[in-house]
Amino acid sequence: MPPRVQPEPITSALLREWPRGREDGGTVLVVGGSRRVPGAVLLSGIAALRTGAVTLQLAVADRHASGLGLAVPEALVVGLPETESGAVSRAAADELGDLVADASAVVVGPGLVDPDETAALLERLLPATRGPVVLDAFALGALGLHPSLGDPVRGRVVLTPNVVEGGYLLGSEVEDHVEAAVAIAGKYDAVVNLMGVVAAPDGRVWQDGTGHVGLSTSGSGDVLAGLVGGMLARESDPALATCWAGHVHAMAGQRLVPRTGLTGMLARELLDEVPRVLAELRSR
């Protein structure tokens, strides 16, 4: 058996050593938000804005578009066709062609709920993208069932699975976070953030020990996906962008502990901490 990969620790000091990304954060498009889970897109979108994205575009089930536009007045909001069950329909690709082609980064998955419709949407949407793509939530389940869906974005896609989604991507249970992240990165030619382990397809591996159990709260993964999308719009290396996003996510959680404890924090509370964490990291 080959020796276990030893990840490089992600620390604030390490991030400060890396070259700065672009000042212009570009445009981030977030696609998701079924009838039952419209707030996931809101969390991801605001997270992207908090990283410095210049323009935010949100695409959500049509019945929630107006409400989301009022909740996030900074964003352009697009209503998407729904199935009878309230899932975002595969026909949504017709509404998104120009947006995905022009976006600096695209996040797909927060709030999607139907694996078949999601797979059909990815099949049409991903070939139209030109920049980096983040796949999260049900988009990861669809990719696990149909790995060829990722072919159009190989080398420029970031996957943000939890342990269950990591198992779907691997086709087997996740037993070791590092080994699983490395295997998923190689299988899909993707950068992977799995429970604080960031693996790149070229063999680079990092691990962030800053996170804690409070970050398992509902919606926290949506915030992480949005942070990755925002960082990708600024940083040319997807692996470095993902390391930055994961560390900012974890540090934001640390800042909340004195006020909320480990079990009382809400994902939305992470959002206000993000710019403060970034300011601290970039000022030293």
Automatic annotation (TrEMBL):
Subunit-level organization: Homotetramer.
Binding site for (6S)-NADPHX: 40, 111, 222
Pfam families: Carb_kinase (PF01256)
Sample GO molecular function, one term: kinase activity
Domain YjeF C-terminal: from-to ranges: 5-281
Enzymatic reactions: (6S)-NADPHX + ADP = AMP + phosphate + NADPH + H(+); (6S)-NADHX + ADP = AMP + phosphate + NADH + H(+)
Family: Belongs to the NnrD/CARKD family.
Principal EC category: lyase
UniProt cross-references to CDD domains, sorted A to Z: YXKO-related (cd01171)
Biological function: Catalyzes the dehydration of the S-form of NAD(P)HX at the expense of ADP, which is converted to AMP. Together with NAD(P)HX epimerase, which catalyzes the epimerization of the S- and R-forms, the enzyme allows the repair of both epimers of NAD(P)HX, a damaged form of NAD(P)H that is a result of enzymatic or heat-dependent hydration.
Reported cofactor(s): Mg(2+)
Keyword Transferase attached: yes
Residues the entry annotates as binding AMP: 221
One GO biological process term: nicotinamide nucleotide metabolic process
Keywords tagged on the record: ATP-binding, Kinase, Lyase, NAD, NADP, Nucleotide-binding, Transferase
Entry EC no(s): 4.2.1.136
PROSITE patterns: YJEF_C_3 (PS51383)
Protein name, UniProt field: ADP-dependent (S)-NAD(P)H-hydrate dehydratase
Gene: nnrD
